[in-house]
Amino acid sequence: MTWLQTLCSQAAEAGGALQTLYGIDGREKLSEETLRHWEGYQDSRPVRIGNAAYRQLQLDIYGELMDAVYLYNKYGTPISFDFWRDLRRLVDWVCDHWQDRDDGIWEVRGGRQHFVYSKMMCWVAIDRALRLAAKRSFPGDLHRWRIHRDRIYEQVLRKGWDARRGSFVQHYGARTLDAACLTMPLVFFMSPTDPKMTRTLDAIGSPISKGGLLGDGGVYRYNAQETPDGLAGGEGTFNMCGFWLVEALTRAGRTDPVRLLQAQLLFEKMLGQANHLGLYSEEAGPGGDALGNFPQALAHLSMISAAFNLDRVMGGQDTRQ
Question: How far apart are CA 154 and CA 150, in angstroms?
Fold first, then answer.
């Protein structure tokens, strides 16, 4: 949190915008270089150092930041006013820019879109700021924040939902699915039992051969055949997305035993994606082989969250916060 506070202070002084990623020492420039003399794991070229995504615009990062700060203030240490002052500037920036197109959570290189996940996480950023301000009686432009929070919500429900497909989709105007929509009930954007949410669960949880994203014992982040992501070749299922589906089914399963059983079965399958040390890679291949970043923190975090919530529901404890 101290590391984040330093970055937020610098961003606030520079106008309120954060980069998508930084070096672990806080450096801002992470120029990408392709090492053509290396073939990579199982000839998985290109091998790169650095990350060109540091120049991308990913609006979802503000939601992740504010949710983390909100939970830290609630369960850890109350934040300082100086930190709040910098966060307030970032929230004002989100209000000014949430309607922009961005590159999205998956860092696609196929052009900016109005990604549903990005809009939702802008809603999270403003919502958590409002909650934090209320808890700590912090000053801020609360009336303006509420207006933008509500506008985002209504726009996502209007433009992010495809009635023909019966699901939330990847971006406005698209019909392709996106596993990132599974996080809607996880961040309290949608009720887990809202008909639009349960229909989205059913759509994403269908086999990829039938238009869904389920396959090979896991969940694909999107259908690579339908999404112009600017990348060559195929990919495996994303372990993080599989655990997202487990948790979304779990939350819906509080009142639906069938969905709870689905969550339990998928969770047991997902446990088999780890290696003998219990570590998860970013992706899993058709034979369960580890692909992508290894080990990946996000896969483990989503596994812990899914396990925690599944355990509480199966134990008869309420998961509402």
Answer: 6
